[in-house]
Amino acid sequence: MRGVDLSLLLVRAALGFVFVSYGYAKWAGGMDRFAALLLATGFPFPDALARVVAALELGGGLMVLLGVWTRLVAALLAVEMLVAIARVLWPRGFVGGFAFEAVLLLCALALVAGGGGRWSVGRGPLSR
Amino acid sequence: MRTLLWVLSALVVLAAAAHADPATDPGAAEGDARRFFEQGLEYSRRQQWDLAIQAYRRAVQINPRFVEAWTNLGYAYRKVKDYGRSVEAYEQALKLRPDYAQAHDYLARTYLAMGNREGAMRHYEILRRLDPRMAERLLRAIQANDPDLESSGY
Fold first, then answer.
1. pTM score, two decimals?
2. Would an 8 Å CB–CB cutoff place A32 in contact with chain B?
3. Which of A76, B24, B74, B119 could cross-link with B111 by S-S, CB 3.0 to 4.6 Å?
4. What stretches of chain A show up as alpha helix (H) in DSSP?
Protein backbone atom coordinates (compact mmCIF):
# COMPACT_ATOMS: atom_id res chain seq x y z
CA MET A 1 0.00 0.00 0.00
CA ARG A 2 3.02 2.26 0.08
CA GLY A 3 2.38 3.31 -3.54
CA VAL A 4 -1.20 4.29 -2.73
CA ASP A 5 -0.03 6.28 0.31
CA LEU A 6 2.58 8.05 -1.79
CA SER A 7 -0.08 8.85 -4.44
CA LEU A 8 -2.42 10.28 -1.82
CA LEU A 9 0.41 12.33 -0.34
CA LEU A 10 1.24 13.76 -3.78
CA VAL A 11 -2.41 14.60 -4.47
CA ARG A 12 -2.64 16.23 -1.03
CA ALA A 13 0.52 18.22 -1.72
CA ALA A 14 -0.75 19.43 -5.11
CA LEU A 15 -4.19 20.35 -3.84
CA GLY A 16 -2.91 21.79 -0.57
CA PHE A 17 -0.28 24.05 -2.12
CA VAL A 18 -2.70 25.35 -4.74
CA PHE A 19 -5.44 26.21 -2.25
CA VAL A 20 -3.05 27.70 0.32
CA SER A 21 -1.53 29.89 -2.40
CA TYR A 22 -4.88 31.02 -3.81
CA GLY A 23 -6.39 31.51 -0.35
CA TYR A 24 -3.40 33.58 0.75
CA ALA A 25 -3.55 35.62 -2.47
CA LYS A 26 -7.20 36.45 -1.74
CA TRP A 27 -6.39 37.62 1.81
CA ALA A 28 -3.22 39.48 0.88
CA GLY A 29 -4.55 41.09 -2.31
CA GLY A 30 -7.65 42.52 -0.68
CA MET A 31 -10.98 40.83 -0.69
CA ASP A 32 -12.81 43.45 -2.74
CA ARG A 33 -12.12 41.99 -6.16
CA PHE A 34 -13.30 38.55 -5.13
CA ALA A 35 -16.35 40.02 -3.41
CA ALA A 36 -17.16 41.92 -6.62
CA LEU A 37 -16.97 38.68 -8.58
CA LEU A 38 -19.37 37.03 -6.14
CA LEU A 39 -21.74 40.01 -6.29
CA ALA A 40 -21.63 40.07 -10.08
CA THR A 41 -22.50 36.38 -10.26
CA GLY A 42 -25.45 36.75 -7.94
CA PHE A 43 -24.18 35.37 -4.64
CA PRO A 44 -25.74 36.82 -1.47
CA PHE A 45 -23.60 38.54 1.20
CA PRO A 46 -20.58 38.77 -1.12
CA ASP A 47 -18.21 40.44 1.36
CA ALA A 48 -18.80 37.85 4.09
CA LEU A 49 -18.84 34.99 1.62
CA ALA A 50 -15.53 36.12 0.11
CA ARG A 51 -13.91 35.87 3.56
CA VAL A 52 -15.44 32.46 4.22
CA VAL A 53 -14.19 31.10 0.89
CA ALA A 54 -10.72 32.60 1.36
CA ALA A 55 -10.55 31.09 4.86
CA LEU A 56 -11.67 27.73 3.51
CA GLU A 57 -8.98 27.82 0.83
CA LEU A 58 -6.19 28.92 3.16
CA GLY A 59 -7.14 26.84 6.20
CA GLY A 60 -8.52 23.93 4.22
CA GLY A 61 -5.47 23.84 1.97
CA LEU A 62 -3.23 23.68 5.04
CA MET A 63 -5.31 20.89 6.55
CA VAL A 64 -5.20 18.89 3.32
CA LEU A 65 -1.45 19.42 3.18
CA LEU A 66 -1.03 18.09 6.70
CA GLY A 67 -3.62 15.38 6.30
CA VAL A 68 -6.05 16.57 8.97
CA TRP A 69 -9.75 15.81 8.37
CA THR A 70 -8.77 15.28 4.75
CA ARG A 71 -12.04 13.72 3.55
CA LEU A 72 -14.22 16.43 5.10
CA VAL A 73 -12.07 19.36 3.95
CA ALA A 74 -11.62 17.87 0.47
CA ALA A 75 -15.41 17.50 0.23
CA LEU A 76 -15.85 21.20 1.04
CA LEU A 77 -13.20 22.19 -1.50
CA ALA A 78 -14.88 19.95 -4.10
CA VAL A 79 -18.19 21.71 -3.48
CA GLU A 80 -16.45 25.08 -3.88
CA MET A 81 -14.96 24.01 -7.21
CA LEU A 82 -18.28 22.62 -8.40
CA VAL A 83 -20.03 25.89 -7.60
CA ALA A 84 -17.23 27.94 -9.22
CA ILE A 85 -17.47 25.89 -12.42
CA ALA A 86 -21.27 25.89 -12.55
CA ARG A 87 -21.87 29.54 -11.58
CA VAL A 88 -18.84 31.38 -12.95
CA LEU A 89 -16.59 29.44 -15.30
CA TRP A 90 -18.88 27.28 -17.43
CA PRO A 91 -19.53 29.94 -20.11
CA ARG A 92 -15.78 30.23 -20.77
CA GLY A 93 -15.56 26.60 -21.86
CA PHE A 94 -13.07 23.93 -20.87
CA VAL A 95 -9.78 25.11 -22.41
CA GLY A 96 -8.97 28.55 -21.04
CA GLY A 97 -12.01 28.25 -18.79
CA PHE A 98 -12.67 25.67 -16.13
CA ALA A 99 -9.99 23.05 -16.93
CA PHE A 100 -7.87 23.97 -13.91
CA GLU A 101 -10.83 23.95 -11.54
CA ALA A 102 -12.00 20.61 -12.98
CA VAL A 103 -8.60 19.12 -12.16
CA LEU A 104 -8.81 20.51 -8.62
CA LEU A 105 -12.33 19.11 -8.31
CA LEU A 106 -11.17 15.66 -9.36
CA CYS A 107 -8.18 15.78 -7.00
CA ALA A 108 -10.48 16.76 -4.14
CA LEU A 109 -12.88 13.93 -5.01
CA ALA A 110 -9.95 11.51 -5.11
CA LEU A 111 -9.14 12.51 -1.51
CA VAL A 112 -12.79 12.22 -0.46
CA ALA A 113 -12.78 8.67 -1.82
CA GLY A 114 -9.29 7.63 -0.74
CA GLY A 115 -8.69 9.72 2.38
CA GLY A 116 -5.32 11.25 3.19
CA GLY A 117 -3.37 8.03 3.38
CA ARG A 118 -1.02 6.70 6.05
CA TRP A 119 1.30 9.71 5.95
CA SER A 120 -1.18 12.07 7.54
CA VAL A 121 -0.93 14.03 10.77
CA GLY A 122 -4.59 13.39 11.55
CA ARG A 123 -5.98 10.12 12.87
CA GLY A 124 -9.34 8.48 12.29
CA PRO A 125 -11.53 7.89 9.24
CA LEU A 126 -12.10 11.58 8.51
CA SER A 127 -8.37 12.08 7.98
CA ARG A 128 -7.12 8.82 6.50
CA MET B 1 -14.29 3.20 -6.89
CA ARG B 2 -13.61 2.12 -10.47
CA THR B 3 -17.12 3.14 -11.50
CA LEU B 4 -16.61 6.54 -9.90
CA LEU B 5 -13.41 7.06 -11.85
CA TRP B 6 -15.14 6.10 -15.11
CA VAL B 7 -17.99 8.48 -14.44
CA LEU B 8 -15.62 11.35 -13.59
CA SER B 9 -13.47 10.73 -16.68
CA ALA B 10 -16.56 10.62 -18.88
CA LEU B 11 -17.78 13.92 -17.42
CA VAL B 12 -14.48 15.65 -18.16
CA VAL B 13 -14.38 14.32 -21.74
CA LEU B 14 -18.00 15.32 -22.33
CA ALA B 15 -17.41 18.80 -20.97
CA ALA B 16 -14.37 19.24 -23.20
CA ALA B 17 -16.25 17.95 -26.25
CA ALA B 18 -19.20 20.23 -25.57
CA HIS B 19 -16.98 23.28 -25.61
CA ALA B 20 -14.55 22.39 -28.35
CA ASP B 21 -15.03 23.57 -31.91
CA PRO B 22 -13.13 21.13 -34.11
CA ALA B 23 -14.30 22.78 -37.33
CA THR B 24 -12.15 25.84 -36.84
CA ASP B 25 -8.53 26.55 -36.19
CA PRO B 26 -8.68 28.51 -32.92
CA GLY B 27 -5.52 30.48 -33.69
CA ALA B 28 -6.68 31.62 -37.13
CA ALA B 29 -10.18 32.37 -35.89
CA GLU B 30 -8.82 34.48 -33.07
CA GLY B 31 -6.68 36.40 -35.55
CA ASP B 32 -9.73 37.10 -37.74
CA ALA B 33 -11.80 38.14 -34.74
CA ARG B 34 -8.99 40.46 -33.63
CA ARG B 35 -8.89 42.07 -37.09
CA PHE B 36 -12.62 42.83 -37.00
CA PHE B 37 -12.20 44.11 -33.45
CA GLU B 38 -9.46 46.52 -34.58
CA GLN B 39 -11.73 47.67 -37.40
CA GLY B 40 -14.47 48.25 -34.87
CA LEU B 41 -12.10 50.34 -32.76
CA GLU B 42 -11.21 52.46 -35.77
CA TYR B 43 -14.89 53.02 -36.67
CA SER B 44 -15.60 53.84 -33.03
CA ARG B 45 -12.83 56.45 -32.98
CA ARG B 46 -14.46 58.04 -36.04
CA GLN B 47 -17.86 57.67 -34.32
CA GLN B 48 -19.17 55.59 -37.22
CA TRP B 49 -21.26 53.52 -34.87
CA ASP B 50 -23.20 51.45 -37.41
CA LEU B 51 -19.98 50.29 -39.04
CA ALA B 52 -18.45 49.68 -35.62
CA ILE B 53 -21.43 47.51 -34.69
CA GLN B 54 -20.99 45.45 -37.87
CA ALA B 55 -17.29 44.94 -37.17
CA TYR B 56 -17.75 44.00 -33.52
CA ARG B 57 -20.59 41.66 -34.42
CA ARG B 58 -18.31 39.85 -36.87
CA ALA B 59 -15.65 39.63 -34.16
CA VAL B 60 -18.01 37.97 -31.67
CA GLN B 61 -19.49 35.72 -34.35
CA ILE B 62 -16.01 34.38 -35.03
CA ASN B 63 -15.00 34.27 -31.38
CA PRO B 64 -18.04 34.24 -29.08
CA ARG B 65 -15.71 34.40 -26.06
CA PHE B 66 -14.15 37.73 -27.08
CA VAL B 67 -15.01 39.76 -23.98
CA GLU B 68 -13.64 43.12 -25.18
CA ALA B 69 -15.53 42.84 -28.47
CA TRP B 70 -18.82 42.15 -26.63
CA THR B 71 -18.11 45.13 -24.38
CA ASN B 72 -17.36 47.49 -27.26
CA LEU B 73 -20.38 46.18 -29.15
CA GLY B 74 -22.49 47.15 -26.14
CA TYR B 75 -20.93 50.61 -26.18
CA ALA B 76 -21.61 51.08 -29.89
CA TYR B 77 -25.23 49.97 -29.46
CA ARG B 78 -25.64 52.51 -26.66
CA LYS B 79 -24.33 55.20 -28.96
CA VAL B 80 -27.09 54.46 -31.49
CA LYS B 81 -29.58 54.28 -28.60
CA ASP B 82 -30.30 50.58 -29.10
CA TYR B 83 -30.29 50.02 -25.36
CA GLY B 84 -31.79 46.52 -25.40
CA ARG B 85 -29.00 45.14 -27.56
CA SER B 86 -26.45 47.16 -25.63
CA VAL B 87 -27.50 45.51 -22.36
CA GLU B 88 -27.48 42.08 -24.02
CA ALA B 89 -23.92 42.60 -25.28
CA TYR B 90 -22.65 43.75 -21.89
CA GLU B 91 -24.37 40.85 -20.17
CA GLN B 92 -22.66 38.49 -22.57
CA ALA B 93 -19.29 40.07 -21.73
CA LEU B 94 -19.98 39.81 -18.01
CA LYS B 95 -21.10 36.22 -18.29
CA LEU B 96 -17.64 35.47 -19.67
CA ARG B 97 -15.75 37.73 -17.26
CA PRO B 98 -17.89 38.80 -14.30
CA ASP B 99 -15.09 40.94 -12.81
CA TYR B 100 -14.50 43.05 -15.94
CA ALA B 101 -14.65 46.59 -14.55
CA GLN B 102 -15.06 48.34 -17.91
CA ALA B 103 -18.17 46.33 -18.79
CA HIS B 104 -19.77 47.14 -15.41
CA ASP B 105 -19.03 50.84 -15.96
CA TYR B 106 -20.52 50.85 -19.46
CA LEU B 107 -23.53 48.76 -18.47
CA ALA B 108 -24.27 51.11 -15.58
CA ARG B 109 -24.13 54.05 -17.99
CA THR B 110 -26.50 52.25 -20.38
CA TYR B 111 -28.96 51.71 -17.54
CA LEU B 112 -28.58 55.39 -16.69
CA ALA B 113 -29.38 56.32 -20.30
CA MET B 114 -32.48 54.09 -20.04
CA GLY B 115 -33.55 55.87 -16.88
CA ASN B 116 -32.87 52.77 -14.79
CA ARG B 117 -30.97 54.35 -11.91
CA GLU B 118 -31.37 51.25 -9.75
CA GLY B 119 -29.64 49.10 -12.36
CA ALA B 120 -26.86 51.66 -12.66
CA MET B 121 -26.34 51.66 -8.90
CA ARG B 122 -26.23 47.86 -8.84
CA HIS B 123 -23.26 47.90 -11.20
CA TYR B 124 -21.72 50.83 -9.35
CA GLU B 125 -21.70 48.63 -6.21
CA ILE B 126 -19.73 45.99 -8.11
CA LEU B 127 -17.41 48.52 -9.73
CA ARG B 128 -16.69 50.14 -6.34
CA ARG B 129 -14.99 46.90 -5.32
CA LEU B 130 -13.18 46.39 -8.62
CA ASP B 131 -11.91 49.86 -9.46
CA PRO B 132 -12.68 52.60 -6.91
CA ARG B 133 -11.47 55.45 -9.14
CA MET B 134 -13.56 54.36 -12.10
CA ALA B 135 -16.48 53.90 -9.69
CA GLU B 136 -16.09 57.48 -8.41
CA ARG B 137 -16.38 58.79 -11.96
CA LEU B 138 -19.43 56.60 -12.55
CA LEU B 139 -21.06 57.83 -9.35
CA ARG B 140 -20.63 61.43 -10.46
CA ALA B 141 -22.27 60.51 -13.79
CA ILE B 142 -25.16 58.84 -11.96
CA GLN B 143 -25.59 61.84 -9.67
CA ALA B 144 -25.57 64.19 -12.66
CA ASN B 145 -27.85 61.79 -14.56
CA ASP B 146 -25.43 62.06 -17.50
CA PRO B 147 -24.29 58.70 -18.96
CA ASP B 148 -21.39 60.29 -20.83
CA LEU B 149 -19.99 62.33 -17.95
CA GLU B 150 -16.33 61.34 -17.37
CA SER B 151 -16.86 58.24 -19.48
CA SER B 152 -13.73 56.38 -20.50
CA GLY B 153 -15.15 55.82 -23.98
CA TYR B 154 -14.02 57.18 -27.33
1. 0.82
2. yes
3. B119
4. 2-28, 32-40, 46-66, 70-84, 99-114
